[in-house]
Design brief:
mainly alpha; 5 helices
């Protein structure tokens, strides 16, 4: 059966799955190409466009016209792409921050460890000679039996 543009919109509003499949077949590739203007990863683009069709299917939105519906599709794709990029940027900044923080913590740990060893070395040097000898033997793993 051949549907007019207005019939397709009304049938979609009524929950006609055939019309949704027709729209998907007609617009999927064009929407993917449009999404590539924003997002460069093919898998992410396909996910975004598929999510847009899921949103259209699940929403009970009433469309004024077929042209209005098309504009809505493209707006949804653009908004989803921009949201994707925003979240991706936030995630990348977070990962970068965590990496820098881990490196700083490791450097501080290394500095603290060096300071502890330096203080220990100075304290051992201050011990009387026999005490220092016993302590050094202990550090070497020898026991006083």
């Amino acid at each position: 059966m051949v549907y007019s543009e207005s019939e397709i919109v009304h049938a979609l509003e009524a929950g006609n799955e055939i019309c949704l499949n027709m729209l998907f077949d007609n617009y999927y590739r064009a929407l993917c190409v449009y999404a590539f203007r924003f997002v460069s990863d093919a898998d992410d683009v396909e996910d975004i466009v598929q999510e847009v069709f899921i949103t259209v299917w699940e929403s009970k939105k009433v469309y004024n016209s077929y042209q209005g519906f098309k504009a809505y599709l493209y707006d949804l794709v653009q908004n989803r792409c921009l949201n994707y990029l925003k979240h991706k940027t936030v995630e990348e900044k977070y990962v970068s921050y965590v990496k820098v923080t881990e490196e700083e913590v490791e450097r501080e740990y290394d500095l603290m460890q060096e300071e502890i060893y330096r203080e220990l070395y100075l304290a051992v040097r201050e011990l009387p000679e026999k005490c220092r000898g016993v302590f050094e033997l202990h550090l070497e793993g020898k026991k006083n039996d």
